[in-house]
Amino acid sequence: MKISIIIPVYNAEQYIEECINSVFMQDIEEKEIICVDDGSTDCSCEIIRNLSEKYSEIHLVTQNNQGPSMARNQGLKIAIGQYVVFLDADDYYIDKSALRSMVNICENEHLNACGGIMLYDKSGDKGILEFSKKLLCNDSIKICTYESIQCGNGFQGYIFNREFLINNNLLHKLVL
Q: Between β-strands 58-62 and 31-37, what pairing exists: parallel, antiparallel or unpaired?
């Protein structure tokens, strides 16, 4: 498995389908989606279950409400992808090659993390996916903070090497 997309879900019935569909529009083939329902009281779980009948790559995990960071950590514990990305239930990808592009950069540059941001021209019509020019979280970097690699608001534009997060005990320290 190349990439695991971890989505914490809490009362996101109006967004979750668009979010998941945007992941399946990505042109990277080896992917899994781990939706961690964090105690939703709406129809989020039902929507995810219905989508899982269409997409076998969807895994639904449920837990009592503990917040999005704990939901992300729960997803990370069961993820099998070489890389992981954290996507909120109300976020979605516009560029169909975003995940593949970030995976390629990580592999070509031997990085443990990579971030990208979609930039638009003044009219808002043309989107260009740009990537940070920094070498992000390679093996020579001992401490990597979100602030040191941030190239845009949010974290849906970042991928991480799963083993890097686990081997450096970043599981419970990951508070995005």
A: parallel
138-142: list long-range contacts, CB under 8 Å, 24+ apart: 138/109, 138/110, 138/111, 138/112, 139/110, 139/112
What secondary structure does DSSP assign to 101-151, as a single string? HHHHHHHHHT-SEEEEEEEE-TTS--EEEEE--S--S-TT-S---HHHH--
| CA Rg value for the chain | 16
> 91 — phi, psi (to 5°)?
-105, 160
CB atoms within 10 A of CB 163: 12
| Max Cα distance, the chain (Å) | 45
Q: Give the HSE-up count for residue 159: Cα atoms under 13 Å, Cβ half-sphere.
A: 24
Per DSSP, the three-state class of 4 is strand
pLDDT in tens, 27-77: 999 999 999 999 999 999 999 999 999 999 999 999 999 999 899 999 999
Q: What SS3 state is found at 37?
A: strand
